[in-house]
Amino acid sequence: MSLHVPETPTSQSTKAGAAAGADAVLDREETMSRDELEALQLGRLQHTVAYAYDRVPLYKRKFDDAGIHPSDLRELSDLGNFPFTTKDDLREEYPFGMFAVPQHEVARVHASSGTTGRPTVVGYTKQDLADWAKLVARSLRASGVRPGMKVHNAYGYGLFTGGLGAHAGAEALGCTVIPISGGQTERQIQLIQDFKPDAILATPTYLLTIADAMAHMGIDPTSTSLKYAVLGAEPWTEEMRHELEVTMNIKACDIYGLSEVMGPGVAGEAVETQDGSHIWEDHFRPEIIDAFNPAVGKENVLRDGEHGELVFTSLTKEALPIIRYRTKDLTRLLPGTARPAHRRMGRITGRSDDMIILRGVNVFPSQIEEIALRIPELSPHFQLELTRPEGQRMDQMTVKIERREAVSFEQSTTAARTLQEQIKIHVGSSCRVDVVEPGSLERSNGKLRRIYDLRPQQ
Ligand code: DLL
Question: Which residues line ligand 1 (CB under 6 A)?
């Protein structure tokens, strides 16, 4: 069911400003009151825990071991008493052990890249695919995309959820989709010039690669037809948003998601407020827990505003219901703004498994990104390599960072020294900095793996 609601026009200073302001048709669930939404959540949650218990042996085992039964879920906060689900659970049940429907009802599977260990496999019924497309469409619309626009989809197609997930959402919204996928940057730029898309969907670091390559090819990145970018699949900072918006003269919004919970579109950011992604709470119930000392029990769920690890429970999924999935993503829950009933998530500051403790100092890749973006000769494409040289007890961190296309080797060595000093001042760690060629660091699905921990295992 849909409701016709006008949206606030965005700033007039960008190309996006001129095009936005057209009315948007919002889903009924986007405009519900919080009370109405919570009543919907409770009914769906009670259904989901019972459905998972009845159909997935792993959940039955886990609930029984914890001495809890679906009938114990009487109010929303009771969810905190149920056991967590982790990536290891999905790995152990590889490939289809956590599916709640027979295989012939599974319309599609996706999988994580599985660079370490077995991949995690996720599945969708026809109804799940329809819900997913609806939520991606909702996210794109919130970020300024409208029916009839041309959408250049540079998320990778294949087992990764980014490409096909974004594709189906843009189609469901009524857009013309250009399914370019990731890579072949020069060809992407050619098609952006020829097809004149209004919006681009990509990882933030890949969009920056496109912008840099345009400048290198003598094309002014502010001059393209692009007005909106919907970016996600990896953590990015406000500094990165600023850089992309200014360099390309666009409005850039966040889209968040993860395969185990659905894929892109678990949460999406509104272009008129640009204040973090709204979690679509009619389909997912979020919680925040202590990332480093997680404990089951409703008294251990953190309050809104407190920082911790994001945990999700699906409310409508049929093929792969997921109960209290530990995302490892670190953030906090904030009150809804543009969609008042749906809470927002703060920017993801990092992943709990991405936090480095270097000689007693906590280091997050996002801190390095912020600093790198302040040094014009360097890109925010970097990797952190941790080593412990033979015979030494002290760990070493090397920042491998790509220089910008237009920068000479000499300029980049001075910039490397600046980066080293700034990291020492702002993060408190000494490190080595190696500047490498643009595009030389390995990417997977447009995402850069940030940390290579080569220290001997203890
Ligand atoms: O990356 C799904 C996706 C595709 C989201 C396209 C948005 C756009 P996975 O490969 O399973 O799924 O990776 C999920 O990526 O747990 C976060 O750590 C990170 N991530 C995804 N979106 C964001 C975001 C897709 N907007 C993992 N900000 C998640 C920060 C993000 N991190």
Answer: 112, 155, 161-162, 232-235, 254-259, 263-264, 327, 329, 348, 351
